[in-house]
Amino acid sequence: MRAAAIDHTPAMAERRNFQRVRVKIYGRFMLEDRTEHPCQVIDMSPGNVSLRSKRIGQPGEKVIAYLDHIGRVEGVVTRTLQDGFAMTVVASERKRDKLAAQLTWLANKHELDLPEDRRHERVAPRNPMSVLQLTDGRQYPCRVIDLSLSGAAIEIEVKPAIGVQVTLGTMRGQVVRHFEDGIAIEFAVLQRAESLDAEFGGRLS
User: Fold this and answer.
1) β-strands 71-81, 36-44 pairing
2) From the CB of residue 68, how many other CB atoms can be counted at a distance below 10 Å?
3) Pair 188, 150: CB distance under 8 Å
4) Distance from first CA to last CA of the chain, Å, rounded?
5) Which one-letter DSSP state was computed for residue 169?
6) Which of 45, 75, 117, 125 could be 87's S-S partner, Cβ–Cβ 3.0 to 4.6 Å?
7) d(Cα 1, Cα 124) in Å, to the nearest integer?
8) How many C-beta atoms surround the C-beta of residue 16 within 10 A?
């Protein structure tokens, strides 16, 4: 009985002390059967995560997630959601402190409305032809209109829904806007100028 009480106290403390932050983070997770699946974080605290995914983990199942900006997160599924599941975070106090700092930064970034592409020069690539791939494997040819270290505008016939995870060439990201001839993509992580220049010939600095 004493051990059970000790086990449940941290979870209750997390709910009291940490506010969940709504963030746009993508990643992958592995279930106990060792299958891996793409996901998007709906909200997160240092003690809990809600994930959107086509594959839904079952309550009590162990999960290992690899999340952009966050890194490796281990936990246990607590409940299923309509389009995903929620899990607790199993971590040391030091790891939770690091998570709190990362989430604070991400929350401030969204609160202040500072999308990366407003802070980086956008240029027209020398090699504009590329391929957009969806998570189900479908691929569509596209033309990159302009790009920055954090995103790109592309001309394409199809328009995946806003929020959908996509891959442009080798750069993972999500659809953030539609316009008449195509879509705008925000990369999952800030890219290096050398990587974009190698793939698109963007000459970014």
Assistant:
1) unpaired
2) 18
3) no
4) 60
5) T
6) 75
7) 65
8) 8
pTM, to two decimals: 0.50
Q: 69 and 189 in contact (C-beta within 8 Å)?
A: yes
Query: Whole-angstrom Cα distance, residue 29 to residue 55?
Result: 10
Place of tokens 């990643």: 27
Task: Identify residue 68 by its one-letter amino acid code.
Answer: D
Helices (H) and strands (E) in the chain, counts: 3, 12
Cα separation of 7 and 16, whole Å? 16
Cα 151 to chain centroid, rounded: 14
The two three-digit tokens of residue 81, written as one number = 């959601």
pLDDT tens, the chain, 205 aa long: 443 333 333 444 444 356 788 887 888 899 999 999 999 898 999 999 999 999 998 999 999 998 877 888 999 999 999 899 999 999 998 888 888 887 877 776 654 444 444 445 677 788 889 999 998 999 999 999 888 888 888 999 999 988 889 999 999 999 988 877 889 898 888 888 888 888 887 555 4
Chain-centre distance of CA 132, in angstroms?
Answer: 17
